[in-house]
Amino acid sequence: MTHAMKKITTLAVFSIVLALILYSVFELFEDETEQQGNTGGEYDVSGNPEQEGTAIIPPEASEGTEVGEQAPNISLETLDGRETDLNAYKGQPIILNIWATWCPPCKEEMPEMQRFHEIHGEDVTILAVNATQTEDDPANAARYIDKEGFTFETLLDTNSELSDAYQTFSIPTTYFIHSDGTIQSRKFGPMTYEYMTEKMKNLD
């Protein structure tokens, strides 16, 4: 075999090896991307209040309204069919919680919210806003609240107006709103009674 032929053969072998390496890297990258894409609907329900919630719109979206801004006033429906809005509660501190019946972290924190409501309900109003448009059945919220015996105020976000206005990208999401209507802080993921009690100190 001539020197030229040997050189061509060596180059051909090198090209094949390089192609195989690039293909392997590409396949590995695709596998990792798929794994990342498939974790969006999973959640940790271990009881850790710092866990993230369940995505309902793309995480690229902004993380809601800013602390210090006036809370958007949105008209919502109560479980008994009345129309109300956030201004109806202005003048009192509000814990505004966005939740859904299909969301395990939401269900995890609701007994904590009920405990807080029973102890501090005269001083702080809990508004549990159901992301109704994400429910399989709009009646799910009322059935769940009745079944569990929760007595805090529950409102229905039937057209996602509140979720859109607050740019909510995950649930549960909670806004702690001062009596003057400004947002004092916000929480992504489930809360504990102790967490709500601590936040309450800054709402007066």
From TrEMBL:
It holds the Pfam family AhpC-TSA. SUPFAM superfamilies: Thioredoxin-like. Residues 35-67 are annotated as: Disordered. InterPro entries: AhpC/TSA, Thioredoxin-like_sf, Thioredoxin_CS, Thioredoxin_domain, Thioredoxin_ResA/DsbE_sf. Residues 65-204 form the Thioredoxin domain. Keywords: Disulfide bond, Isomerase. One of its GO terms (molecular function) is isomerase activity. This is Thiol-disulfide isomerase or thioredoxin. It comes from Salimicrobium halophilum. The lineage of its organism: Bacteria, Bacillati, Bacillota, Bacilli, Bacillales.
